[in-house]
Amino acid sequence: MTGQHGTDASPERLASALMEKGVLSSDWLPAYKRAPRHLFIPDVVWPGTAGGNRQKNRIIRSEEPRAWWEAVYTDAPITTQWDDGTYTGPEKGKIPSSSNSMPTMVFSMLDALAVEEGQRVLEIGTGTGWNAALLSHRVGPENVVTVEIDEAVSADARKRLQSAGFVPLAVVGDGAAGFPMEARYDRVIATCSIGRVPYAWVEQTKPEGVIVAPWGPTYGGEAIVRLNVHADGTASGRFLGSSAFMRLRAQRTERKHVREYLKGKPWPADGIRSTTALSPDDVGHWHIMFAIGAQVADAFPWMESYKDGSYTLWLRDTAVMSWATVDFEKYRTEFEVVQSGPRKLWDEVEKAYGWWDAQGRPGFDRFGLAVSAEGEAVWLDEPKNPVPTVLG
After folding, report:
1. d(CA 171, CA 384)
2. What local confidence, expressed as pLDDT, does residue 9 receive?
3. DSSP labels, 164-188
4. For 193, which DSSP code?
5. Is the distance from CB of 81 to CB of 96 less than 8 angstroms?
6. Confidence band for 120, pLDDT divided at 50, 70 and 90
């Protein structure tokens, strides 16, 4: 059956696909029907790909209505803003800064939230307003507070929400601070990733309440965590599965160019050479990056690719004091390493990988997070087993 604009894409077809996957439950189906995705997608978008973070070129609804509709009712994310609104060109900008999330992820997180009718919900990151509309239908708009840091994004979302018949409290503000004026909440959900849980979220959640958020270390890797808030002011819970969200703006980190680390000298500058039997390819998977990042603080990777399929894995610290490179070539069993600075970053990554390997190569579901006013810690299997910190 061909739907609107001569395409097979339709709300019904996407709903069927989501229900077959087991992510859209009968509990959320009425909200899905009452708040169809197309009501919350702007006319200018950069469609994403299912299961990935690669965006396609810009689509303008008035020029390509069929492609726009197809993008809306595909189970994939849609970027709606680049570089905090400063880029609007036909290709991709530098940093995606607002989006409409992949429907599978939207309903998986809503399912994890386990929200019940009449409960009060705080949403961090209004975006296009779709998530706020779904929550408004479920618990009543008077019980939903949604916070967005970008004034233009918030204003557009409010217009879409009002046009669709939803009037949650949509405010402009820094989501890291939550919204204390309406606290406490039964549920808190973030539609942006974090590297540490803002303690304000815990403080503003009722005991026995739930926080659902994408969490990922500076190094990379990310997963949805579901935290149960306790009466003593702490929160803890397990990671549920892989995710890839835009960072909470208050927690973005500026990443200096490699030239800043080399201090004007050509590579390898003052770096010390060695070799490793651990292939850079073995440490690049999302869940392994997560496990490494939970141990190796304040460092991040970058891959410099070459036409012949080889590449250099760069490691840099956020202090702009230490760096390392590892050169990858196919069919090699040893790889050249160069390290410089007070931290031996590749040594740290090797130790972190060795720990992960020794624990039986755990996936996201074996990890959890404990949060208190003093800080937070990732744990493996149970809270009394914190993940170690690696020092090179």
Report:
1. 39
2. 81
3. TT---EEEES-GGG--GGG--EEEE
4. B
5. yes
6. very high
Selection from 278, 267, 287 nearest residue 349 by Cα = 278
- pLDDT tens digits for range 258-309: 999 999 999 999 999 999 999 999 999 999 999 999 999 999 999 999 999 9
Q: What angle do CA 300, 303, 309 make, to 5 degrees?
A: 160
Give the mean pLDDT of 378-384.
97
State percent of the chain over pLDDT 70: 97
Residue 101 annotated as catalytic: yes
62-102 per-position pLDDT tens digit: 999 999 999 999 999 999 999 988 988 888 888 888 999 99
Beta-bridged to residue 82, according to DSSP, are 87, 96
The answer to whether 236 touches 370, Cβ cutoff 8 Å, is yes
Beta pairing, strands 144-148 & 121-124 = parallel
> What separation in angstroms does the CA of 123 have from each of 141, 143, 169, 209, 229?
12, 11, 10, 14, 16
Q: In this predicted structure, which of 85-94, 112-121, 245-254, 323-332 has the lowest mean pLDDT?
A: 85-94
For residue 307, what pLDDT is reported?
94
Among 97, 98, 101, 322, the active-site one is 101
CB 29, CB 134: distance < 8 Å: no
Beta strands in the chain, from DSSP E residues, in sequence order = 44-47, 59-60, 78-82, 96-100, 121-124, 144-148, 169-172, 185-190, 205-215, 223-229, 235-242, 272-276, 299-305, 311-317, 323-328, 335-340, 367-372, 375-380
pLDDT of residue 53: 59
Question: What angle, 0 to 180 degrees and rounded to 10, lies between the N-to-C axes of helices 345-358 and 286-293?
Answer: 110
Beta strands in 70-143 (DSSP E): 78-82, 96-100, 121-124
Q: Quote the longest CA-to-CA distance of the chain.
A: 65
**If you write DSSP's letter for every residue of 316-353 in order, what string do you get?**
EETTSS-EEEEEE-TT-SSEEEEEESSS-HHHHHHHHH
